[in-house]
Automatic annotation (TrEMBL):
<feature type="region of interest" description="Disordered">
    <location>
        <begin position="230"/>
        <end position="271"/>
    </location>
</feature>
<feature type="domain" description="ABC transporter">
    <location>
        <begin position="4"/>
        <end position="228"/>
    </location>
</feature>
<comment type="similarity">
    <text>Belongs to the ABC transporter superfamily.</text>
</comment>
<keyword id="KW-0547">Nucleotide-binding</keyword>
<keyword id="KW-0813">Transport</keyword>
<protein>
    <submittedName>
        <fullName>ABC-type transport system ATP-binding protein</fullName>
    </submittedName>
</protein>
<keyword id="KW-0067">ATP-binding</keyword>
<dbReference type="InterPro" id="IPR003439">
    <property type="entry name" value="ABC_transporter-like_ATP-bd"/>
</dbReference>
<dbReference type="InterPro" id="IPR003593">
    <property type="entry name" value="AAA+_ATPase"/>
</dbReference>
<dbReference type="InterPro" id="IPR017871">
    <property type="entry name" value="ABC_transporter-like_CS"/>
</dbReference>
<dbReference type="Pfam" id="PF00005">
    <property type="entry name" value="ABC_tran"/>
</dbReference>
<dbReference type="InterPro" id="IPR027417">
    <property type="entry name" value="P-loop_NTPase"/>
</dbReference>
<feature type="compositionally biased region" description="Polar residues">
    <location>
        <begin position="245"/>
        <end position="263"/>
    </location>
</feature>
<dbReference type="GO" id="GO:0016887">
    <property type="term" value="F:ATP hydrolysis activity"/>
</dbReference>
<dbReference type="GO" id="GO:0005524">
    <property type="term" value="F:ATP binding"/>
</dbReference>
<dbReference type="InterPro" id="IPR050763">
    <property type="entry name" value="ABC_transporter_ATP-binding"/>
</dbReference>
Length: 271
């Protein structure tokens, strides 16, 4: 059974459709990357999964539980690194982590371990307000892991990081073997190495959902992405899977339809 189920999810901003009838599942322990151009809808999807925004239509389930605003138990299974770091600027890095640990009933000792993991052990006593964007992002990642979440949602894990931090964050993500991870990225090279699956997003729609083992390298993934975005015939995929929704990718014989769609969309529009 899928651990994450996204079913017929649409997000409208007024008349503009940011995410358009997207459906996909993630198995527990799977790592997937969302790949797509600027404005494709990646952040909007991550934000809805992170409970930072509500779908206009459609359903999201985590561990078979609906992700509603009142469902704190489900939300406590999520670790989120969003565009905005959502840290308390006036608190130190360590205090930010400890506050989060207290909220989740976690031993504070884990905070120092995680600061070490993200390479900020020596800066833990400094206020976040004085941190660079990359440093804040690393604190945000550490905080997202404090309560040992089942699902890590990460918007742009690699953007704005120096080379050492990049290596460090990549290593942290690669070590999350038993967790489910969904990351939105433009860094296809790293995303390809990290992920079991790559989800192509174009103009708010899911235009491909493929196992990375279907490709020899990231360049091939990019080729396939471009082919799908320009309306080209998807290539035959033998070991990959493509899970088009009823409204996204035309079936080609090598793709199978997702069984998770619903014709009974829920959710509400928060604009
Ligand atoms: N709060 C908002 N109000 C209005 N439109 C929005 C809002 N958030 C996103 N959008 C629109 O929804 C679409 C998807 O945006 P989103 O930020 O999800 O794209 P993205 O794939 O994450 O892009 P990028 O790679 O540039 O971060 C875009 O057309 C964007 O303008």
């Amino acid at each position: 059974m899928a651990f994450v189920s996204v079913s017929g999810v649409t997000k409208r901003f007024g008349t503009h459709v940011g995410v358009d009838d997207v459906s996909f599942d993630l198995e527990a322990g799977e790592t997937a990357v969302l790949f797509g151009a600027n404005g494709a809808g990646k952040t909007t999807l991550i934000r809805m999964l992170a409970s930072l925004s509500r779908p206009t239509e459609g359903d999201i389930e985590i561990g078979s539980e609906p992700l509603g605003s009142g469902n704190a138990a489900v939300r406590s299974r999520l670790g989120v690194v969003a565009h905005e770091t959502m840290l308390y600027e006036e608190l130190t890095a360590r205090e930010n982590l400890r506050l989060h640990a207290r909220l989740h009933g976690v031993d504070a000792a884990v905070c120092d371990e995680l600061l070490e993991t993200v390479g900020l052990a020596s800066r833990g006593g400094e206020r976040v307000a004085g941190f660079s964007h990359g440093m804040s992002k690393r604190v945000s990642l550490a905080r997202a892991l404090v309560h040992d979440p089942d699902l890590l949602l990460f918007d742009e894990p690699y953007t704005g990081l120096d080379q050492t931090s990049l290596k460090r964050v990549a290593a942290v993500l690669e070590d999350l073997e038993d967790r489910t991870v969904l990351a939105a990225t433009h860094d296809l090279e790293r995303g390809y190495r990290l992920a079991d699956r790559v989800l192509f997003v174009n103009d708010g729609r899911l235009v491909g959902d493929l196992e990375t083992t279907a490709f020899d390298d990231a360049a091939e993934v990019l080729e396939e992405y471009e082919r799908r975005c320009t309306g080209g015939e998807p290539r035959a995929v033998t070991s990959g899977r493509a899970v088009p929704t009823r409204s996204t990718v035309a079936g080609t014989g090598t793709e199978r339809a997702s069984g998770t769609n619903t014709d009974d969309p829920g959710g509400s529009n928060d604009g």
